[in-house]
């Protein structure tokens, strides 16, 4: 794809950046375009940016503050990274906005910081931006405006936040108060930092609050804010070393989440933040704790930003919309307003690094998936990652992240609300789950479901872990059917072999229930092609992305492709291949499926012979013998 012409980017440099062609100048041009584009939507005093789009549940004034705060973060990185050598109007706009927003009697006053209010999120961005631009903005504000800013921030002191990454918003905001000699609570700061220690699960991974909440918040919040806090704090009490060590470990695996085209794996909430996923990469370089070579850091970052730019992000107006590529509200959350996507500003953190830093001057290096096929077991979140060099796709197999609160003692193992961004068995850099309400209710994609007589599928809400190691991961969920008080155990083991995932299911079900399994959904501007045969189904997009499911054991010959409209963040036409067992015999059954997602040509009728399956009657063991002689026992 060609770079969006409305960004007016400089020429590419294929000597310094042989993979992407992008340099620091491209990043500055992209930042400038995004900052210029929001000016027409500013209120007269520049305290709010009321962007077009759906209003969040917090209301239009809060959304306006969000527009100021999140774009201020981008402006701060641009201003500080240039040593203040930017268009003076940029500095003046945000200085004026601070004055107008903190004037309680003014027409553009920001909402007060009350317990668990959206303003707390935005205040953290303002605090970070004020610290990073201190010589150009804070130090030049009138004393009266400084006092009003401090007064507004004081709402944090002793306040209550949600018990997740929000604790860090209080930490950085009150540390800013401390840095300017204003009243603050050291207890608030210390308890917030102590609390994230409770959520650390090892290998660089935090859960976002209690439970199994693993997603990009690990990088763009739980690793990022401790780094930003350390840049503000006079005395870190030894915490910085711990945070740096954890970030270093996280970054060892992180490049494996990105496809050769720069796309991050599409999993988790708040995906409208898009290239905010780059924040931990830049944070590692900024804190001098990254294991990544400078050329790899820039290749990863530039590849991802360019990936979105080539697909119309920002749009022709220069705005970030609520979606992934284009606007797509079903993939967003109710808390997201029209300015929410500007948390993507975190992806520009690298502009704080000077122009002569090795990250900007070293020659680009290839991503892991560009060099070889890859696979990575991540026991902390319960994930397997595998990438294929031939097509550059990375896939994530999910046996550990469900976004459910911890279960109460004696709780129903099937309790919880299903979220397609967490409950699916697999995600990838080339596909998204079906998230429109009508499609999510069908729950076909990357899910093994029991169907009631009316067609209602069981939901994979709480994931119960079994194992996660090199090439194999397993979990189970409790399947609930309408009108049936019994909870049926559905256990799945994923086995990686070359470019394929083989799923071995052990399914407990009532007699007569239908069992259904779906593969990856593909989506495109044009309807994907579909083919089916005995025990297999395949769908293929116009640009050559194919998804197939192939029955290896325990299925009827029934295979179908389900089509949908306006259900997927990747395109208006979507299609999902799936298999059926029309009538379960009752008790426990075994089913084995091969799943393929590839840009290569697939021959599913041949893939049915990819492995010999042997089951043992008196033992819960399935033996997979592949054509290359590999034997795996599940």
What does this structure look like?
The protein is an alpha+beta fold and 634 residues long. The chain is 28% helix and 21% strand. It has 15 helices and 22 strands. An eight-stranded antiparallel β-sheet has the order 8-9-10-11-19-16-15-14. Strands 7, 12, 13, 17 and 18 form a five-stranded antiparallel β-sheet that branches. Strand 20 and strand 21 form a beta hairpin. Helix 2 runs antiparallel to helix 3. The longest helix is centred in the N-terminal third of the chain and has 22 residues. The radius of gyration is 25 Å and the shape is globular. The protein starts with 23 loop residues before the first helix and ends with a strand.
Give a quick set of tags describing it:
634 residues; alpha+beta; 8-stranded antiparallel beta sheet; 5-stranded antiparallel beta sheet; 15 helices; globular
Q: What layout of secondary structure does this protein have?
A:
Blueprint: H1 24-37, H2 60-81, H3 88-101, H4 118-132, H5 143-153, H6 167-179, H7 186-198, E1 200-202, E2 205-206, H8 217-232, H9 239-253, H10 279-286, H11 294-309, H12 358-361, H13 368-371, E3 374-378, E4 383-388, E5 393-398, E6 426-428, H14 437-442, E7 448-451, E8 464-469, E9 472-479, E10 488-497, E11 500-509, E12 514-518, E13 522-524, E14 529-533, E15 536-540, E16 546-553, E17 559-568, E18 571-581, E19 587-598, H15 604-607, E20 611-615, E21 622-626, E22 631-633
Antiparallel strand pairs: 1-2, 3-4, 4-5, 5-6, 7-12, 8-9, 9-10, 10-11, 11-19, 12-18, 13-18, 14-15, 15-16, 16-19, 17-18, 20-21, 21-22
Helix pairs in contact: 1-2, 2-3, 2-4, 4-6, 6-7, 6-8, 8-9, 8-10, 9-10
């Amino acid at each position: 794809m060609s770079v969006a012409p409305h960004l007016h980017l400089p020429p590419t440099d294929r000597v310094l950046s042989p993979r992407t062609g992008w340099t620091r100048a491209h990043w500055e041009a992209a930042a400038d375009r995004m900052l210029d584009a929001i000016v027409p939507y500013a209120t007269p005093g520049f305290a709010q940016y009321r962007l077009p789009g759906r209003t969040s549940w917090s209301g239009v004034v809060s959304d306006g503050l969000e527009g100021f705060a999140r774009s201020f973060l981008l402006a701060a990185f641009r201003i500080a990274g240039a040593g203040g050598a930017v268009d003076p109007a940029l500095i003046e706009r945000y200085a004026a906005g601070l004055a107008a927003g903190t004037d309680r009697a003014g027409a553009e006053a920001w909402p007060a910081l009350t317990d668990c209010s959206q303003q707390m999120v935005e205040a953290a961005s303002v605090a970070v931006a004020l610290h990073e631009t201190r010589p150009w903005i804070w130090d030049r504000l009138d004393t009266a405006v400084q006092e009003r800013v401090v007064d507004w921030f004081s709402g944090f002191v002793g306040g209550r936040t949600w018990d997740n990454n929000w604790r860090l918003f209080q930490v950085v905001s009150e540390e800013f108060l401390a840095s300017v000699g204003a009243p603050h609570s050291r207890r608030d700061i210390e308890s917030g930092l102590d609390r994230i220690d409770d959520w650390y699960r090892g290998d660089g991974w935090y859960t976002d609050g209690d439970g199994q909440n693993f997603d990009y918040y690990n990088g763009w919040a739980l690793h990022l804010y401790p780094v930003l806090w350390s840049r503000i704090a006079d005395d870190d009490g030894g915490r910085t070393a711990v945070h740096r060590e954890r970030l270093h470990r996280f970054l060892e695996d992180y490049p494996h989440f990105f496809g050769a085209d720069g796309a991050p794996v599409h999993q988790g909430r708040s995906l409208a933040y898009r290239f905010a996923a780059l924040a931990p990469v830049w944070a590692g370089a900024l804190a001098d704790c990254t294991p990544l070579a400078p050329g790899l850091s820039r290749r990863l970052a530039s590849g991802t930003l360019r990936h979105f730019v080539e697909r119309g992000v920002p749009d022709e107006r220069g705005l970030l919309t609520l979606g992934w590529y284009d606007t797509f509200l079903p993939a967003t959350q109710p808390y997201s307003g029209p300015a929410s996507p500007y948390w993507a500003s975190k992806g520009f953190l690298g502009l704080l690094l000077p122009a002569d830093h090795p990250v900007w001057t070293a020659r680009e290096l290839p991503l892991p998936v560009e060099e070889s096929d890859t696979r990575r077991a991540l026991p902390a979140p319960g994930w397997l990652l595998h990438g294929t060099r031939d097509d550059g796709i990375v896939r994530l197999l999910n046996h550990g992240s469900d976004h459910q609160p911890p279960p109460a003692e004696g709780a129903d193992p099937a309790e919880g609300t299903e979220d397609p961004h967490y409950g699916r068995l697999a995600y990838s850099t080339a596909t998204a789950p079906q998230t429109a309400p009508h499609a999510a209710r069908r729950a076909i994609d990357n899910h093994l479901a029991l169907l009631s007589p009316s067609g209602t599928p069981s939901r994979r809400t709480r994931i119960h872990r079994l194992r996660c190691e090199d090439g194999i991961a397993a979990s189970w969920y409790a399947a609930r059917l309408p009108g049936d008080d019994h909870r049926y155990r559905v256990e799945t083991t994923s086995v990686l072999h070359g470019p394929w995932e083989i799923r071995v299911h052990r399914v407990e079900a009532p007699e007569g229930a239908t069992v259904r399994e779906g593969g990856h959904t593909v989506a495109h501007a044009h309807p994907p092609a579909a083919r089916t045969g005995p025990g297999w189904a395949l769908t293929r997009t116009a640009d050559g992305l194919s998804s197939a499911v192939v029955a290896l054991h325990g299925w009827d010959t029934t295979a179908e492709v389900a089509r949908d409209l306006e259900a997927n963040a990747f395109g208006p036409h979507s299609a999902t291949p799936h298999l059926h067992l029309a009538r379960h015999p009752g008790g426990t059954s075994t089913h084995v499926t091969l799943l393929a997602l590839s840009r290569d040509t697939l021959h599913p009728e041949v893939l049915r012979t990819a492995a010999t399956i042997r089951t043992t009657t008196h033992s819960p063991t399935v033996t997979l013998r592949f054509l290359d002689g590999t034997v795996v026992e599940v």
